[in-house]
Specification:
heterodimer; A: 113 residues; mainly beta; seven-stranded mixed β-sheet; 11 strands; B: globular
């Protein structure tokens, strides 16, 4: 595997379900990001981890819970989501704050029923 | 006012045309300016990266930043059908991880 991988690629869940999104980077980076991309809206930064510490939390509802067990892995735990949370969830990684090295994964397409 | 404004298009051009994509922004603290290309069902990929004002050229792509006007542009010369994608502008202030993205412009290049 190379670059940034995300699983699952597609997810359908009910509002009472609990699920997790997984991201893995194979680039040796030390910062990882979660973004939300909704139709016709800009990418919204949700969380940033640098050296496994959360450095940005962009006023995200508590039904989204990130976890970064090491510099290569990032999770987004989901529970009691709302239909408006349906979107493409993108993971990215970079070497520190160097935006030139920010690489994105293919995303998880989430549908909340 | 949004921090970054970008016309969503769609923009449709014939093959071989010169394409001009633009964004305006309101935060004068932005120092790093990026253009990403996103194909359908894929994540964004970094296309061009510029620090502060000026021009940067890479093959058929030229990025321009005019900080006095708070305006950035991406030019694509000799456009190809494979350039059909959504183009996202993005910018970052110094010393932070928080990148602000435009909504993206959908480009179609017709053969």
């Amino acid at each position: 595997e190379t670059g940034v991988t995300q699983t699952p690629r597609h997810l359908v869940m009910g509002m009472t379900n609990k699920k997790s999104l997984k991201c893995e980077q194979h680039l040796g980076h030390n910062a990882m990001y979660w973004y939300k991309q909704s139709a016709k809206k800009p990418l919204e930064l949700m969380f940033v981890y640098s050296l496994e510490e959360r450095v940005e939390n962009n006023s995200v509802p508590s039904r989204f819970s990130p976890e970064c067990p090491n510099s290569s892995h990032l999770f987004l735990h989901l529970h009691t989501l709302q239909p408006e949370d349906s979107a493409l969830y993108l993971c990215a990684s970079s070497q520190g704050q160097d935006q030139e090295t920010q690489y994105f994964g293919p995303g998880t397409r989430l549908l909340v029923l | 006012q949004k921090e970054v404004e970008q016309d969503p298009g769609p923009l449709s051009v014939p093959e071989g045309a010169i394409v001009s994509l633009n964004c305006t922004y309101s935060n004068s603290a932005f120092q790093y300016f990026m253009w990403y290309r996103q194909y359908s069902r894929k994540g964004p990929e970094l296309l061009m990266y510029t620090y502060s004002s000026g021009n940067k050229e890479d093959g058929r792509f030229t990025a321009q930043v005019d900080k006095s006007s708070k305006y950035i542009s991406l030019f694509i010369r000799d456009s190809q059908p494979s350039d059909s994608a959504t183009y996202l502008c993005a910018m970052t202030p110094p010393g932070g991880f928080k990148t602000i993205f435009g909504a993206g412009t959908r480009l179609f290049v017709k053969a």
